[in-house]
Fold:
Amino acid sequence: MPIITYREALNQALREEMSRDDRVYLMGEEVGVYNGAYKVSKGLLEEFGENRVVDSPIAELGFAGIGVGSAMAGLRPVIEFMTWNFALLAIDQVVNSAAKMLYMSGGQFNVPIVFRGPNGAALQLGAQHSQAFESWLAHIPGIKVLSPGTPYDAKGLLKSAIRDDNPVVVLEGEMLYNTKGEVPDHEYLIPLGKADRKREGGDCSIITSGKMALVAMQVADQLAKEDIHVDVIDLLTIRPMDVEAIYESVRKTNRAVVLEEGWEICGIGAQVVDFIQRECFDDLDAPVIRVHQADVPMPYAKNLEKIAKPDAAKTIAAVKQVMYRS
Amino acid sequence: MASKKKTDAKGEARSVRTAGDPALDREMLQSMLLQRRFEEKTGEAYALGKVGGFCHLYIGQEAVSTGIISQLRPDDYVIGTYRDHGQALARGVAPRAVMAELFGRIDGCSRGKGGSMHMFDRHTNFLGGHGIVGSHVPLGAGVGFAIKYRGGDQVCVCFMGDSVVNIGAFHEALNMAALWKLPVLFVIENNRYGMGTSVERAAAVDDLSRRADGYKGMDGIVIDGMDVHSVREAAAKAIARARTESLPSLLEIRTYRFRGHSMSDAVSGTYRSKDELEEYQTMDPVFSLRDAMVIAGTLTVAEWEQMEKDVAATVQDAWDFADQSPEPPAGALYEDVLVDTTS
Structure:
């Protein structure tokens, strides 16, 4: 099986879907002539032309709204945000326009749109460029929220997102674009709303998604050497969440750690813990522990940034804690 | 052409004309009168608690919706603000469906889930009443983008209030519409107040049509919004420009609302005077056209009375229909959040 980067996987997904359906177009800052701020759209302008690969001004609120309006009139836009930090300027269009349209029109106007771009912290980018917005977006009914961690997942999920008739948010990892993985030659789709078991184990569940799924796999591999076998549930889709996959895993392991990139308060982990206590209360042998970013804006200094981020060491400590090992 | 001379609040001579085409005049008068009487009835329903939430009446601004929308084709698009009842009616959404929506009933044009601020109708390409000031202006540009993308010759009309020119979404949308030559009419209904703040107190350039100067290729036009035929003529030119040359326009239509911003504020006495209101009421777009037609000899008093009767019957029918329409079933709560289809 070919091994390609996360960036190339997304590029393939865009290329394949734009070839398949001429209503699909890509719009955003630097997506065309510049080939994408992170080169995800490399070569697409040349292949599809400027009508379908549209360089926008720096105007997130405006071009996100243009995407929504065009979707109401029959197109299938893919709106690229250079980062989700900038997408805050456009959050009104995601929350008030895209997510509400079907409902407040009594089912008359669906909005088949994809909002995508890098999310989460990279390295020393400071407070305004290092934020993970999964929980903000997943809070909103009317949209789907995806968080792929591997090239395989990124391609299969983005293709499904583009074909979905609802607004779909794709949170890519800024640190993931260069990571590599196996992606088959043949076409495939990954269904939205289904989690993926990334490692099989009976001792403890780690429930996670996105970039943190890679951390969880490292943790599982490392702990296997100590004869601790972790079940890694990669949610892939944050909303709608595959709660059955969580329950199945926790009922097997009786212990769980929830690992996320974002902040603690009202985070994704808070919701996962709630699902677990509601449905798996009697299955638990220990309280569920959460691993997340420190409750501070991201510092610039390298040492402080490292302390602030969730990582493998913190996750290993959490797994050992729920297993009452030291 | 007959005309009825009037003077506006700034002392400028103005006149409300007939079209010289009695059938057309009658159609315009009928459309505006329906909106007027419908909105008066909406006010009554609100007072009785049959309509809830925020509710913004269109009374005084009827020449804008009728003048613009009467020039559109059925396959064109209309998008607007939360002050949307009049535009829905002018676009041909059934009065029954609009009233049922206001009553929060299943037969409403948005199945009772939208309410006063969110009228939608796919059959007439009526893309909604939107409740966040300025937010729908990029949506209107996006509809224009879709038209151009497909190589169509439709146009999109995007209605907005005067306060919209001060929010960022307005600039972003107009910039891209001009940059990409999108077939959109951006229609400012300048009723002089964003809620209770006058244009002069909110906009550093209060000659709003001049905002078009910032966008190459965009026409900026000022129109008398109390004269439906002035609105129609300007709309025809801007629509032709959009349809044949795919160029956007900014139309500043000077109008006035005769009621408060919403149902919860006084008609006058705080941010505007009773004198000012009364002065504008002498320019009433509905009655000005009626009077001009009477002077021109194309409308008799008996014909007017019949028109009033017919409109009253239509509005009462809408009320009765809405009153008898069922509330949405509880099961509807979880419907229409997402569709379960892919393409």
